[in-house]
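User: Please fill in residues for this 448-position structure.
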C-alpha cells in the first residue's frame, strides 16, 4: 500500500496583522505595528500550496480561525453586543483586542502534534491539539483547532483526536514545530523526534535566560503517551538554550527533518552527538538509515539562520530519492545563506535542489514555509478517509483565490481592528469557507 506525507497548509485569515505579540520571535517584534496586507498574505500562501501540488506532492488546506475572538474578550469582562465588546476593548485594553485579532493560526505547524498509524499502539493516526499556552493570543486557538481537525479527519476508524494538554506552564506544548519523524517509508514504523526547551520538574536541564522556552519535556512525554508510542520509537532532545535566547523560539527555526534526513545547525541542540547516535540506532532497528546534514556556524551564523529562516524550510522527498528544499525569498537575500545553499546543492549530496518562494507577509510576522504547514503521514486508505473538501486541487485553488479576492482587505493596521465591520466581514468569509471546504459548523458563531 502506498503512503504519503501530506502537507496541510494554513490559510491566512482575514485579520492578518503585525501585532508584535510574540516575545522571543525576532521578526514578529521587529515588524510590530507596520501595515499588513491580508489579501497578499493569503494569496502568497495559496500560491505555495498550488506550486507543491503541481510538483506532484499531496497538498491540503487548513482553515483559519474566527477573529476577532469576541468570546475570548467576553471571558475577560467585556460585555454588550459584539460591536460594543470590540469598541470597549479598543478603548480600555487595546493590547487585548490586538491579541484577539491575531491571525497566528496560519502557522499550523503549531496546530497539533501528529503520529501516523505505523507508530501508534492502536494503528490509527493520532492528533493532539497544541495548547500554545506560552502566548495568550495563541492559547485561545486550540478549541477551534480541534473542531477543524475533527472535521477534516472525522473517521474514527482511522483517526484519533486528543484534547490539548493542561494549559499550565509545566505542560507548554507548541505542536509539530518541535516534533518531526524519521522513517524509511512514510507507511512504515519510524522514530518520532521530540525537541524541548526546558524541563518543568528536572533541574538538571538548563533553561534560556532571555526568552522563554515554550516546549517542555513533560509535554512531549505526555503527547507520546497519548499517542501510544513505544519507547523504542521515540527520541527526546533538548534545544540549545543559547539559541533560544537568540530568537530560535521553536526547533523548526534551527532544524528540519524528513524521511531519513535531519538538516540542522551546528548550535541547534545540547548533547548533539548522543542524540544523533540514538536516532541512528533506533531508526536502524526499524530498517532505516539515519543521515544528518550539519550546517556549521562558520558558514551560517545563528543570526543568519533566524533572519533568513533557512531551517524553517520544507524538506521534501522526491520520487527519485533526492530531496528538495523549499525556502523563503529571504534566504536568497542573505549572502552567506545563499552561498551555503549553492554549495549544498552543487555537491551531489542528499539535497539536490532549492526552490524559493515569496512569503514576505508571513515572514514579517515571524513564520516561514515550515510554519505554514502541518505534516500528516497517511496511507492510501487513510488518505481516502480524509474530508475531500480540504485536499488541494486546481479547481479548489481557483475557488479559494476568488474567495480571498472577494473577502479580504489589502491593508490592515491596528486601528482597523477596532472596526466592528471587520468581525462581520470575517464571519461572512468563514461561513462561506466552511461550505467550500465541506467542514460543517466549526466556528463559535456557527455553533452558538
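Assistant: Residues filled in for all 448 positions:
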Amino acid at each position: 500500500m502506498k503512503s504519503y506525507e501530506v502537507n496541510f497548509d494554513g490559510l491566512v485569515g482575514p485579520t492578518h496583522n503585525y501585532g508584535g505579540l510574540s516575545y522571543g520571535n525576532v521578526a514578529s517584534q521587529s515588524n510590530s505595528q507596520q501595515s499588513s496586507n491580508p489579501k497578499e498574505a493569503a494569496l502568497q500562501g495559496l500560491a505555495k500550496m498550488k506550486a507543491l501540488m503541481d510538483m506532484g506532492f499531496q497538498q491540503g488546506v487548513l482553515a483559519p480561525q474566527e477573529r476577532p475572538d469576541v468570546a475570548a474578550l467576553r471571558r475577560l469582562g467585556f460585555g454588550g453586543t459584539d460591536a460594543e465588546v470590540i469598541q470597549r476593548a479598543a478603548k480600555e485594553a487595546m493590547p487585548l483586542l490586538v491579541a484577539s485579532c491575531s491571525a497566528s493560526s496560519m502557522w499550523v505547524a503549531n496546530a497539533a502534534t501528529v503520529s501516523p498509524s505505523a507508530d501508534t499502539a492502536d494503528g490509527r493516526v493520532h492528533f493532539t491539539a497544541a495548547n500554545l499556552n506560552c502566548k495568550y493570543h495563541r492559547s485561545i486557538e486550540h478549541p477551534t483547532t480541534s473542531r477543524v481537525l475533527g472535521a477534516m479527519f472525522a473517521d474514527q476508524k482511522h483517526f484519533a483526536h486528543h484534547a490539548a494538554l493542561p494549559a499550565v506552564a509545566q505542560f507548554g506544548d507548541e505542536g509539530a514545530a518541535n516534533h518531526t519523524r524519521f522513517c524509511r517509508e512514510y507507511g512504515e514504523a519510524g522514530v518520532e523526534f521530540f525537541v524541548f526547551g526546558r524541563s518543568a520538574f528536572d533541574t538538571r536541564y538548563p533553561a534560556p535566560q532571555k526568552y522563554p522556552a515554550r516546549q517542555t519535556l513533560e509535554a512531549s512525554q505526555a503527547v507520546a503517551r497519548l499517542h501510544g508510542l513505544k519507547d523504542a520509537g521515540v527520541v527526546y532532545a533538548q534545544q540549545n538554550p543559547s539559541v533560544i535566547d537568540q530568537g530560535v523560539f521553536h526547533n523548526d527555526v534551527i532544524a528540519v527533518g524528513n524521511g531519513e534526513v535531519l538538516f540542522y545547525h551546528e548550535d541547534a541542540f545540547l548533547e548533539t552527538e548522543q542524540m544523533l547516535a540514538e536516532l541512528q540506532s533506533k531508526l536502524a532497528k526499524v530498517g532505516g538509515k539515519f543521515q544528518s546534514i550539519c550546517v556549521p556556524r562558520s558558514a551560517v551564523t545563528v543570526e543568519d539562520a533566524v533572519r533568513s529562516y533557512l531551517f524553517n524550510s520544507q524538506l521534501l522527498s522526491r520520487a527519485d530519492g533526492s530531496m528538495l528544499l523549499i525556502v523563503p525569498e529571504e534566504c536568497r537575500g542573505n549572502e552567506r545563506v545563499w552561498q551555503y545553499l549553492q554549495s549544498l546543492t552543487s555537491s551531489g549530496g542528499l539535497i539536490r535542489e532549492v526552490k524559493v518562494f515569496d512569503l514576505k507577509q508571513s515572514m514579517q510576522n515571524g513564520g516561514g514555509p515550515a510554519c505554514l504547514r502541518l505534516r500528516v503521514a497517511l496511507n492510501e486508505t487513510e488518505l481516502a478517509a480524509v474530508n475531500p473538501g480540504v485536499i488541494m486541487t486546481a479547481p479548489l485553488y481557483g475557488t479559494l483565490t476568488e474567495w480571498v479576492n472577494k473577502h479580504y482587505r489589502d491593508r490592515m493596521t491596528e486601528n482597523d481592528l477596532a472596526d466592528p465591520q471587520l468581525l462581520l466581514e470575517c464571519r461572512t468569509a468563514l461561513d462561506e469557507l466552511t461550505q467550500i471546504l465541506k467542514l460543517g459548523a466549526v466556528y463559535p458563531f456557527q455553533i452558538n
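For context: The chain has 18 helices and 15 strands.
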